[in-house]
Structures are given as structure tokens and as C-alpha cells.
Amino acid sequence: MYQKQIEQLIVLQQVDDEILTLKDIIEQAPKELSDLEAQMSEFAERRSQIDEKTGILKEQQKKLTFEIDEDAGKIKKSKNKLMMVGNTKEYHAMMREMDSLEKLNRMRGDEQEAVREELVRQDEATTALTEEMSGVQEQYDALKTTLEERLAKAQKKLDSLGRKRKKSCKAVPPPILGRYEFIRERMKNPVIVPVSKGVCSGCNIMIPPQAFNDLQKGHQILSCPNCQRLIYWKAHIEPEA
User: Fold this and answer.
1) CB of 187 closer than 8 Å to CB of 228
2) Given 3-state DSSP classes, what are the helix, strand and coil percentages for the chain, each rounded to the nearest 5?
């Protein structure tokens, strides 16, 4: 009777372990999808920022091109008028104006080059982001396609384990089952553990000699004095070679 009860408790614990694993799968699967959705949302935000910056740069580039062309036209007109200048003072004034416009255009040219380089960087960032988004999108699509099937399969297995658990519970006397449930609610798995060479495998602490002697007799189900888990002598279930 004692050995049968131990065996049923071990089966019950195995079922409970499987139930915990499946519940974790059912709980985590939608979170995986949610995490990917969050990543995609972050990508969209980053893409929006890149597009906004690119738009500003293109407007800046357009403005610089217009200003350079406009001042280049002014310089050309001034050069044409230069030959018609009547005195030295006017000549030098026009030269200074042309020098000023040319210097301003060189500065604009440098700024325009910097804008072009930044646009190239933004294009590269867009390409890299698009590739990254594509990878996550593939993951998302694959996960979404199989999620419902995975959850249905896990739930079906969970229902089957629930029936198996009820059957195992009926085979365990109510007082012992009550102790098992009490420990399971308050302590991490496992609930029932073997004792080998006088050491509890739940807390890895040696149990008192008298308790070990009582355990070896196999008359009643005992608890570890240290961790309070249900214990059994390993040799009762797995005879030593």
C-alpha cells in the first residue's frame, strides 16, 4: 500500500510538472507575438524619424542649390558689367561683392556636400532598418500562423492531463493528497523527492538517522525535517544494483 501511494504521488507530480510547462507555453506564446509587435512598432517609429530627417535634408539641399544658382547668376552678371565700369572705386566695389558671393557659395557648397553625405547615411540606415524589419516580419507572420494551432494543441494536452490528474488524485488517500497539495501551493517543485544515502534530494541536506530508519521501513509517508517536502527511500522505487 505504501509503495503504491508513493508511485501514485510520483505520477501525480509528473503530471503537475507537465501541466505547469503547458500553462507556461499557453501564457508565453501570445507574449512572443506581443514582443514582436512591439519591435515592429519601434521599427515604424525609427523609420518615421529617418523619413522626417531625410525630408528636412532634401529641403535643405533644394534651398542650397537654389541659393547657389541664384548667386552664381549674380556673379555672372557682375562679371559682364565689370568691363563697363567707369572708375576704379566702382570696379573694386564690384570685385568685393563678387568675392563675397563666391565665398558664400563655397560655404554653401561645403554645406551641400555635408547634406549629401548625411543623405547617404540616412539611405544606408533605411536599408539596414528595412532588412531588420523584414526579418522580424517573417518571424511575426510565421508565429501568428502557427500560434492558434500551437495553443489548441497545448490546450488539448492540458485537458488530457487534467483528466489524468483527477485519476491519480483518486488513487491517493485524502490526507496524503491534502499534504501534497498544501506543499505544492507553498513551495517550488518538486513536492515529493527521493532520499538516497540519507540525503534529501530536495534540499540536499542529510535527514536525521532516526527519520532515515523510519523511512526505510516504508510504513508511512514522511516529510523532510529540513525542507518539509514529502520523501521516500529511493530503493523502494528504484532498487539499487
Assistant:
1) yes
2) 80, 5, 15
C-alpha cell at 85: 565700369
- pTM attached to this predicted model: 0.55
Half-sphere exposure of 177 (CA within 13 A, CB side): 13
Contact 133, 39 (CB under 8 A): no
Q: Are 19 and 161 in contact (CB under 8 A)?
A: yes
Task: Tell me the pLDDT tens digit for each residue of 10-68.
Answer: 989 999 999 988 888 888 878 888 888 898 999 999 999 999 999 999 999 999 999 99
Phi then psi for residue 69, to 5 deg, are: -65, -40
Select from 118, 99, 100, 122 the least CA-distant residue to 110: 118
Cell numbers 522580424 label which residue? Answer: 136
Return the H-helix or E-strand segment holding 44: helix 2-82
